[in-house]
């Protein structure tokens, strides 16, 4: 019925077609992992959820749309820019960790990055919407500030040499 030539052509077309879909699926999965499933992303979504009063976090872009509509009703014009700012901040943080070997010390730094993107991009909106976005940025920063204040202070690093004050005290004791 089919010659060997047509079968090979069909098979190669079928294989190429599936490899394209497979690579697209791999890219989608990597993006989902980066922006929704990695530990840092989950923490960032959780912090933002706490700031807006949510009791859950989105696990993909489709859930983000329903999640943000539920917890920020009436903010439809900023849903896209909010997601873009969050994903871009996570991406930049990931790149610093992967390529510059700068580990994430505190995920709230990523949230501050989100706020800086939103503040920078606010000029894309009319003056009424700019005010609302900046109010949201202030609310996120206030929430981040409260969380930072509630964390225990970082342990001081051990010194090889005594500090200047300790050295002066030791010198005074010797005299």
Please, could you describe this protein's structure?
The chain has helices at residues 4-37, 39-52, 61-71, 79-99, 108-121, 127-150, 164-174. The termini are far apart. The longest helix is centred in the first third of the chain and has 34 residues, at 4-37. The chain has one domain (10-148). 74% of the residues lie in helices and 0% in strands. The chain has 175 residues and is mainly alpha-helical. Mean pLDDT is 77; it is low at 1-15.
Task: List the main descriptive attributes of the protein structure presented here.
7 helices, disordered N terminus, 175 residues, mainly alpha, globular, 0% strand, 74% helix
- The global form is globular
Secondary-structure element string? HHHHHHH
Return the structural class: mainly alpha
Give the beta-strand count: 0
Summarize the entry for a quick read.
This protein has 175 residues and is mainly alpha-helical. 74% of the residues lie in helices and 0% in strands.
């Amino acid at each position: 019925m089919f010659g060997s030539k047509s079968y090979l052509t069909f098979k190669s077309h079928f294989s190429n077609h599936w490899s394209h879909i497979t690579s697209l699926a791999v890219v989608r999965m990597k993006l989902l992992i980066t922006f929704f499933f990695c530990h840092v992303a989950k923490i960032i979504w959780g912090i933002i959820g706490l700031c807006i009063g949510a009791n859950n976090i989105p696990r993909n872009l489709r859930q983000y749309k329903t999640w943000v509509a539920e917890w920020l009703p009436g903010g439809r014009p900023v849903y896209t820019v909010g997601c873009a700012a969050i994903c871009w901040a996570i991406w930049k943080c990931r790149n610093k960790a992967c390529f510059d070997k700068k580990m994430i010390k505190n995920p709230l730094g990523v949230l501050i990055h989100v706020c800086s993107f939103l503040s920078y991009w606010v000029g894309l909106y009319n003056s009424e919407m700019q005010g609302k976005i900046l109010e949201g940025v202030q609310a996120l920063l206030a929430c981040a500030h409260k969380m930072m204040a509630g964390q225990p202070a970082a342990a001081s690093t051990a010194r090889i040499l005594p500090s200047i004050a300790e050295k002066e005290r030791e010198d005074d004791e010797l005299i």
